[in-house]
Design brief:
With about 350 residues, the protein is α/β, with parallel strands linked by helices. The protein has helices at about 1-25, 30-35, 55-65, 75-80, 90-100, 120, 125-145, 170, 175-190, 205-220, 240-250, 275-290, 310-315, 330-350; strands spanning about 40-45, 65-70, 105-110, 150-155, 195-200, 225-230, 235, 255-270, 295-300, 320. It binds (3S,4R)-3-hydroxy-2-oxopiperidin-4-yl beta-D-xylopyranoside. The site of (3S,4R)-3-hydroxy-2-oxopiperidin-4-yl beta-D-xylopyranoside has 6 residues, from loops.
Length: about 350
């Protein structure tokens, strides 16, 4: 009798497990993320609609992701090249592609010290620059009102040493440009989620401490800031995971939403299969820690195929930082991430 029961139990378990595994087989990163109520996404390359493998690019993008950030075409030099001329069309292409495919748009970026057109860099008085900044933010955010859900309002305003970055904004306006930028963006679209975005703030260090104090003060003053973006441009040695976990926690405890905004994990140019396994483990760990924190709303990669990654051009000797190779084949990192998502989905189903 007892053994019969055991046999029945085993048979039932076998079918249940098989069923679950089969169900997960048809899944993509996107469908799994949607089951978990999070966003998973990528930075969308310039003019993706006219690259030679555009169809393939779009097919993978909409299959795997539910959020995108235009990699460059919402930056100041692209979207506002002359003082009296905005150039919205390229940005519109990214937005249209996203919305037609049920994806969310994450705008990048309203205030930054890079990719500024010469007409902005040429301004020299505080009054002029404040006016220019207000006009830019209100026009861009207003233009995409209701269509761009999340904005990187201020990008990289802090130095690695943990001080305000010495940029044109800081030098000529002073630190108040940061709060003003959030206030103006909020005025232009009160429903948009407004975030501060930076690199090297993933773990606890002088830079993330400074950012922590800065956003804490903003929250206390009632400045409309809703989240923090951790860029996460790292290499296959990973980072201090315990420190990353604690850092996420302290930002979440301020009542902020958390975003991994630009993740890539570079490996040496002449990488071996072992290096790709090591890379996959870094992606796995980061995902595990993020999924443990309910404040994490989105995880985005800075691209998805190694064919179109900024890494080889910016980090000499490094490459292959993304989760698909140059032929759009998923790499071990892709499967590691999928496994983490699958496990979470199954845990929730229990
Ligand atoms: C990079 C783009 O990927 C490149 O194509 C461009 O030439 C330079 O900018 N942090 C950011 C991003 O916030 O905007 C940067 O993107 C990468 C670092």
């Amino acid at each position: 009798m007892k053994s019969l029961r055991l046999v029945i139990l085993a048979v039932v378990l076998f079918f249940v497990l098989n069923f679950t595994v089969q169900r997960l087989e048809g899944e993509t990163l996107r469908t799994l993320a949607e089951k978990l109520g999070i966003y998973i996404g990528y930075a969308s390359i310039n003019d993706f609609w006219r690259i030679t493998d555009s169809d393939k690019y779009m097919e993978v993008a909409k299959r795997e992701f539910n959020i995108l950030t235009p990699e460059n075409q919402m930056k100041w030099d692209s979207i506002h090249p002359e003082e009296t001329r905005y150039n919205f069309e390229p940005a519109e292409r990214h937005v249209r592609f996203a919305l037609e495919n049920g994806m969310v748009v994450h705008g990048h970026t309203l205030v930054w010290h890079q990719q500024l057109p010469p007409w902005v860099s040429g301004k020299s008085t505080k009054e002029e620059l404040l006016k220019v900044l207000e006009d830019h933010i209100k026009t861009v955010v207003g233009h995409f009102k209701g269509r761009v859900k999340i904005w990187d309002v201020v990008n990289e305003a802090v130095s690695d040493a943990g001080t305000y970055r010495d940029s044109i904004w800081y030098r000529i306006i002073g630190p108040e440009y940061i709060e003003k930028a959030f206030i103006w963006a909020h005025e232009a679209d009160p429903d948009a989620i407004l975030i501060y975005n930076d690199y090297n703030i993933e773990t606890i260090n002088p830079k993330s401490n400074f950012v922590y104090n800065m956003v804490k003060e903003m929250k206390e003053k009632g400045i409309p800031i809703h989240g923090v973006g951790f860029q996460m441009h790292i290499d296959y040695n990973g980072l201090n995971y315990e420190s990353f976990r604690q850092n996420l926690k302290r930002f979440a405890d301020l009542g902020l939403k958390l975003y991994i905004t630009e993740m890539d994990v570079r490996v040496p140019q002449n990488a071996t299969p072992k290096d790709f396994e090591k890379q996959a483990e870094v992606y796995r760990k980061i995902f595990e820690i993020c999924l443990d924190n309910p404040a994490v709303e989105a995880i985005q990669f800075w691209g998805f195929t190694d064919k179109y990654s900024w890494v080889p051009g910016f980090f000499k000797g490094w490459d292959h930082a993304l989760i698909f190779d140059r032929d759009y084949n998923p790499k071990p990192a892709y499967f590691a991430i999928k496994e983490v998502l699958e496990k979470k989905v199954m845990e929730r189903q229990k």
